[in-house]
Amino acid sequence: MKGQFLVRSTATFVEGNIYADKSSLILDWLLRVGIEKDGFSLREVAKDREVSVGLVQRVFRVLVSNGILRTKGVRTAKKFFFKKSSLLLTSWLKEYSIVRKCKMRTYRSGFSEKEELLDALKKSKLSQKVSLTLHSAAEALGYKNTNLNTLELYVLDPTARSTSNRFFN
């Protein structure tokens, strides 16, 4: 019989995206709850955020290797502590991109003013399926922060996209 029993892996550890949707649940817990604790375990975070222990372990491994978390203890008695909590937030902000996070589509309409479009939207069945966002939401709340004259909407119901094609054409 030929073969090797212990083959050393030369593959490097791949971080993956610790800022992905599921992983961000863990990061959110760390910044909201974990920052106030003197120590926390993998299982505690997994139970609180309803994610797998394996996912928490992968995220924590990256955070430990990047110097954001430190550990004390071994195996099931291992506790994690923040070493540099501000570094977690700044690295997350550097990684975040609304363009990658949200699919954006551009529609054109025959309306000459944004107010006309808003009125038509309110009268249609789409008003329950979309929500104002970005500059449009800020302006609606009285905080105009740009000279853009666009209407940004967040689609709450995915089926609204096909409806909007009929509405705006």
Task: State the end-to-end distance.
Answer: 71 Å
Radius of gyration from the alpha-carbon trace, in angstroms: 23 Å
Query: How large is the count of helical segments?
Result: 8
Percent strand: 5-15%
Quick one: how many beta strands? 4
Assembly classification: single chain
Mean pLDDT over all positions: 80
Structural class: mainly alpha
Largest sheet: 2 strands, antiparallel
Estimate the helix proportion, in percent: 40-55%
- Pick out the low-confidence regions: 3-7, 9-14
- Overall geometric form: elongated
Biggest sheet, strands in spatial order? 1-2
The H/E string reads: HHHEEHHHEHEH
Task: Provide structural commentary.
The protein is mainly alpha-helical and 169 residues long. The protein is 44% helix and 8% strand. The chain is built from 8 helices and 4 strands. The chain has helices at residues 21-32, 42-49, 53-65, 85-95, 98-101, 114-123, 134-140, 160-168, and strands at 69-72, 79-82, 130-132, 153-155. Strands 1-2 form a two-stranded antiparallel ribbon. β1 and β2 (79-82) form a beta hairpin. The longest helix has 13 residues, at 53-65. The protein is elongated. The chain starts with 20 loop residues before the first helix and ends with a helix. Residues 3-7 and 9-14 have low confidence and may be disordered.
